[in-house]
Design brief:
This protein is 59% helix and 2% strand. By secondary structure, the chain is mainly alpha-helical. The longest helix has 24 residues, at 18-41. Strand 1 and strand 2 (173-174) form a beta hairpin. It has helices at residues 2-10, 18-41, 43-60, 67-85, 88-108, 110-123, 129-143, 196-215, 234-246, and strands at 169-170, 173-174. It has a domain at 1-147: Serine Threonine Protein Phosphatase 5, Tetratricopeptide repeat (Alpha Horseshoe). Residues 1-123 form the MIF4G domain. Residues 219-235 have a biased composition (Acidic residues). It is found in: Cytoplasm.
Amino acid sequence: MGARLCQLLDSINKAPNLMLRELLQLKMDHQNSELPEFMKQEQVKVRGATLFLAELYMQLRQPEEPFGKTISEYIVSAIEILVAKKGPENLKCVCQCLKLCGFELDQDCPDKVDQIMKNLDQARSSVPSAAEKIIGSVIELRKIAWGRSEEISTPSAALPPMPVSVGAMGPGGPIGAGEYQNNPVFYGPDGQVLTEEESSFLETNVKNKAQAQQAFSGYDDDDEYGLVDPDDDPEVQQAFVEFLQSNPQNRQPQHPYRPDV
């Protein structure tokens, strides 16, 4: 909360607040001189100050401005004080701080971060298993650039082969094998290309459906099947049947509606 408030005050005029930054630096100087004394009786204050500096660092750091690097030096100093004590809570605090701003610290002061990681690795054997796991996770996190490493792009999956229609098959295999076939590609519900048998079945049924639709293409009626509406007047039904029979293209046996008696 305090670090966020400092960031808001620093950006009120859309430019760095030089007076605020000067006051912050004076406070950090004074606090840094008090930390060794706090480590004797009030280590919790040192841990709290270290985490606050890490949050302030993340709020105010700008790569093109030197103030962020100034804060990083105070963070490193506080971390070194905590690591020197080698208590499990102190080491957990250091790990929490590194998880928050380790990536940025590695850019501003990589040599000092190297030394901190070496000290953490050496302290792993003298702490409880819970703290040891936390230290191990931070060491592994740094190996992958604090979780910000670029993802390895995987090559795109190869496109499925273009199926050859049944009509293009010859006794020795596909006609013009190895050449592009200008035929449609059909996929099943599972996303796979249809096999030769499935394509043949689909092609046959599509032709049959097209012929059936063509047989009824001469009907100019709201009923898509060309059937007599049983609700129509009997005279209308008879006139419709005669009309269908008089059209040679659509001539087929029609059965007038006979209600069940």
